[in-house]
Write a structure and sequence with these properties.
Number of domains: 1
Oligomer: single chain
Radius of gyration: 15 Å
Strand content: 15-25%
Helix content: 40-55%
Number of strands: 9
Number of helices: 7
CATH architecture: 3-Layer(aba) Sandwich
Largest sheet: 5 strands, parallel
Length: 178
């Protein structure tokens, strides 16, 4: 299953809830070239790597998908752990951005693609501003990207509105179990 949606919609929060409450679901851990946010742990939230290491892995074809996000940092999903989890019959969740979801659809069209939507635009803006991890300039870049990402909702198989983390997470897992 692929979970995507705009910045600050709560993809990470929903994924963390799934990780804590549904141990049968295997969550892919993306790699990124961005610096960790407060409280993020390398190997748990992301694998934080430098540009050279990212380039080596990309050039070797080690990513299922990768993208430059918000015109700044790069993110990618390591291919091998996903393939191994699927081969073992594990329920597998990829939490990625729109660009990555489009790449995974090309390689794994049989996956279920879920769009996580905010209850409203105003709530999305409130969440982005409220987390306080981006400068005003970065917030504007992210909001511009978010408008484009919201317009792509119809590309997904299912939409879940994240108005309550527990409810959205349970709905996501129930789709995996269906």
């Amino acid at each position: 299953m692929v979970l995507a949606g705009p910045t600050a919609v709560g993809k990470g929060t929903v994924s963390a809830y799934v990780r804590a409450n549904f141990p049968e679901v295997w969550l892919s851990i993306s790699m990124t070239t961005r610096k960790p946010r407060p409280g993020e742990i390398d190997g748990r939230h992301y694998h934080f790597v430098d540009d050279e290491q990212f380039d080596r892995l990309r050039d070797a074809g080690e990513f299922l998908e990768w993208a430059v996000v918000h015109g700044r940092a790069r993110y990618g999903t390591p291919r091998r752990p996903v393939v191994e989890a699927l081969a073992a019959g594990r329920k597998t969740l990829l939490e990625i951005d729109l660009q990555g979801a489009r790449q995974v659809r090309q390689q794994m069209p049989e996956a279920l693609f879920v769009f996580l939507a905010p209850p409203s635009w105003d709530e999305l803006v409130r969440r982005l501003v409220g987390r306080g991890t981006e400068s005003e300039e970065e917030r504007e870049v992210r909001l511009t990207t978010a408008r484009l990402e919201l317009a792509a909702q119809s590309e997904f198989d299912v939409t879940i509105v994240n108005d309550n983390v527990q409810h959205a997470s349970e709905e996501l897992v129930s789709l995996m179990n269906a």
